């Protein structure tokens, strides 16, 4: 069965689960009507199915390569990117003043997920540009905005972000790249960056790099970092690509997956760049880009999960074994497929809820919505990518021995999605952020979300008393665990259980969201899927919360020597 974008699923979530009417009631998003929403989903879905999905296997079999300093992209990727750009999908949320659509992040999240399911390697290119567009909109000078934003939004130019160095991964403050003021409004950027997704390509007129570097005399650590825009070609007086800048691709990484996406080692040798934001304001500007990129990466995980699930479902419907029909009627295969589908719904609904909170923040400026978006972002990123990995691995299992054979394509999903739990902040860092920075409010944002969830549960008691009671108890257990975490002054006690706490939070959110879906579809497939999730999968939260509240003593009682004994 060829890949089919889950347009109906997104329409259901947007119209039935999220409070889109509240968003449409705002001045900013009044034009995001139901008709516009359905048109966006339909057109983007057609492009994903017809143009991007056929590039999935060629991108894996014919990787991007570096030839004489020039990156050659996989067959068809240039045409695929042009289809994305021509459809306007790069600038869905971008300011209309510079050529964007100005539509909600909710729709952007849906379209990006569909593109990820069709061909993750290629989807990374527009995702990088979208992040750069957002950073420039918030932090760049008017002159930079006027020159670069229309080109990035149209897809004539592409964008990247350059954070990581060989000695500075998650510890960004350890970077050694330097910037020197040239006295003419530009800076000379020198240093090496690694793991640069789509660091170069052969289909855009220019590639624009956002580079973190340190000015002379700036303090050590993250506080002394500035952000610079460093294009591959220096724009001439007319704004067209001119002289080649002093930067190059040193090499491309040989990776487990995402072979169609060139991951570059970049070298800057006094390259000309322009300051974005104030001096030593680099991290603030970069986090504007990274926070929504984290939501985007969570969506990548869900998108690959959707692709892997469709692949496994088609195989299970066709594969005959034992003379008793197809393997979809085997209990364990049915269990695997139902788990895949239920978890995809959970992760997708969490991501869309996060996007909706971002939209409400942007439309209203309400601090409560801002706190909700901040709380959900690490959950959406970590759980979405965990689900991507787990569903892809289960897809291999559904295929049995054929899943281990590359020709079936099942293994590619597992290889491609694995990195999503690592880049844009590892999932462990997301969990530490959740129990640390996101709990600095004393658990207020988490408590407000749990209150809303319990209000919804009360509405379901008459129709589904058993499911409602189970989800209610899960919410109360999560509330108690949150109170315990907030009471821990020793951050190691929080960090020791951060990952299980995040997953437990996602599990309970999933119960609530499945219950809401069941209320809309009483007696239908969504009710049956909700019962499966709430009875069989959600109870995982109990063991996870026990782990989350165990503290750090027994963890650190296991010494480094014990680990090698």
Chain-wise SSE layout:
Layout: H1 7-17, H2 20-24, H3 34-52, H4 56-61, E1 65-67, E2 70-72, H5 77-86, H6 105-139, H7 142-154, E3 157-162, E4 178-181, E5 187-197, E6 206-214, E7 225-231, E8 233-235, E9 241-244, E10 247-252, E11 263-276, H8 282-318, H9 331-364, H10 367-399, H11 410-417, H12 427-435, H13 444-460, H14 465-486, H15 491-496, H16 498-520, H17 525-537, H18 540-548, H19 553-557, H20 560-564
Parallel strand pairs: 3-6
Antiparallel strand pairs: 1-2, 4-5, 5-11, 6-7, 7-11, 8-9, 10-11
Helix pairs in contact: 1-3, 3-6, 5-6, 6-7, 6-8, 6-9, 8-9, 8-10, 8-11, 9-10, 9-16, 9-17, 10-11, 10-12, 10-16, 12-16, 13-14, 13-16, 14-16, 14-18, 16-17, 16-18
Main β-sheet: number of strands, strand sense, barrel status?
7 strands, mixed
CATH topology of the domain at 428-555: Four Helix Bundle (Hemerythrin (Met), subunit A)
Gyration radius (Cα, Å) is 24 Å
How many strand segments? 11
CATH architecture label name of the domain at 428-555: Up-down Bundle
The structure class reads: alpha+beta
pLDDT averaged over residues = 96
What is the terminal-to-terminal distance? Answer: 50 Å
Q: What top-tier CATH class of the domain at 428-555 fits best?
A: Mainly Alpha
**Alpha plus pi helix count:** 20
Q: Indicate the overall shape.
A: globular
Tag the structure with descriptive keywords.
single chain, 565 residues, alpha+beta, Four Helix Bundle (Hemerythrin (Met), subunit A), seven-stranded mixed β-sheet, two-stranded antiparallel sheet, 11 strands
Structure, explained:
The protein has helices spanning 7-17, 20-24, 34-52, 56-61, 77-86, 105-139, 142-154, 282-318, 331-364, 367-399, 410-417, 427-435, 444-460, 465-486, 491-496, 498-520, 525-537, 540-548, 553-557, 560-564, and strands at 65-67, 70-72, 157-162, 178-181, 187-197, 206-214, 225-231, 233-235, 241-244, 247-252, 263-276. The relative contact order is 0.09. α8 (282-318) packs antiparallel against α9. The strands form three sheets. Strands 3, 4, 5, 6, 7, 10 and 11 form a seven-stranded mixed beta sheet that branches. A two-stranded antiparallel sheet has the order 1-2. Strands 8-9 form a two-stranded antiparallel ribbon. It is an alpha+beta fold and 565 residues long. Among the domains are: 158-280, Butyryl-CoA Dehydrogenase, subunit A, domain 2, CATH 2.40.110; 428-555, Four Helix Bundle (Hemerythrin (Met), subunit A). β1 and β2 (70-72) form a beta hairpin. The protein is globular. It contains 20 helices and eleven strands. The N and C termini lie far apart (50 Å).
């Amino acid at each position: 069965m060829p890949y089919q974008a889950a347009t109906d699923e997104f329409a259901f979530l947007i119209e039935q689960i999220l409070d889109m009417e509240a968003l449409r009631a705002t001045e900013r998003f009044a034009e995001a009507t139901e008709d516009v929403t359905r048109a966006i989903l339909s057109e983007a879905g057609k492009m994903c199915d017809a143009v991007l999905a056929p590039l999935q296997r060629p991108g894996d079999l014919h990787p991007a390569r570096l030839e004489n300093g020039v990156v050659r992209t996989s067959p068809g990727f240039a045409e695929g990117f042009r289809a994305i750009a021509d459809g306007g999908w790069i600038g869905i949320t971008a300011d209309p003043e510079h050529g964007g659509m100005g539509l909600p992040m909710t729709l952007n999240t849906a379209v990006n997920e569909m593109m990820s399911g069709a061909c993750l390697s290629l989807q990374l290119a527009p995702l990088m540009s979208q992040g750069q567009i957002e950073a420039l909109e918030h932090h760049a000078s008017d002159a930079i905005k006027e020159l670069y934003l229309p080109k990035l939004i149209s897809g004539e130019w592409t964008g990247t972000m350059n954070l990581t160095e060989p000695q500075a991964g998650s510890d960004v403050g350890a970077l050694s790249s330097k910037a020197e003021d040239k006295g003419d409004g530009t800076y000379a950027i020198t240093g090496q960056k690694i793991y640069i997704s789509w660091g170069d390509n052969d289909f855009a007129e220019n590639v624009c790099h956002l580079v973190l570097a340190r000015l002379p005399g700036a303090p050590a650590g993250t506080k002394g970092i500035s952000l610079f825009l460093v294009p591959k070609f220096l724009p001439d007086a007319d704004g067209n690509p001119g002289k080649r800048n002093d930067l190059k691709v040193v090499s491309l990484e040989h990776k487990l997956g995402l072979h169609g996406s060139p991951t570059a080692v970049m070298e800057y040798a006094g390259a000309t760049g322009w300051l974005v934001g104030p001096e030593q304001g680099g991290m603030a500007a970069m986090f504007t880009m990274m926070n929504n990129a984290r939501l985007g990466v969570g969506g990548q995980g869900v998108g690959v999960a959707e692709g892997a699930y469709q692949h496994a479902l088609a195989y299970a419907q066709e594969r005959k074994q034992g003379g008793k029909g197809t393997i979809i009627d085997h209990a364990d295969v049915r269990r695997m497929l139902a788990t895949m589908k239920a978890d995809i719904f959970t992760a997708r609904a969490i991501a869309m809820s996060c996007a909706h909170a971002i939209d409400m923040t942007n439309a209203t400026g309400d601090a409560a919505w801002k706190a909700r978006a901040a709380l959900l972002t690490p959950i959406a990123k970590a759980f979405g990518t965990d689900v991507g990995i787990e569903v892809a691995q289960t897809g291999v299992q559904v295929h049995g021995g054929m899943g281990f054979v590359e020709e079936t394509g099942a293994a590619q999903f597992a290889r491609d999605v694995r990195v999503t739990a690592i880049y844009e902040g590892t999932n462990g860092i997301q969990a530490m952020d959740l129990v640390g920075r996101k709990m600095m409010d004393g658990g207020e944002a988490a408590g407000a979300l749990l209150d809303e969830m319990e209000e919804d549960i009360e509405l379901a008691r008459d129709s589904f008393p058993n499911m409602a009671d189970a989800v209610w108890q899960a919410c109360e257990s999560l509330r108690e665990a949150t109170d315990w975490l907030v009471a821990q002054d020793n951050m190691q006690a929080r960090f020791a259980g951060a990952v299980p706490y995040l997953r437990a939070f996602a599990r309970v959110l999933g119960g609530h969201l499945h219950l809401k879906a069941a209320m809309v579809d009483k007696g239908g497939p969504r009710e049956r899927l909700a019962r499966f999730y709430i009875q069989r999968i959600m109870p995982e939260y109990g063991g996870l919360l026990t782990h989350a509240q165990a503290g750090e003593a027994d963890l650190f009682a296991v010494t480094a020597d014990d680990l090698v004994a």
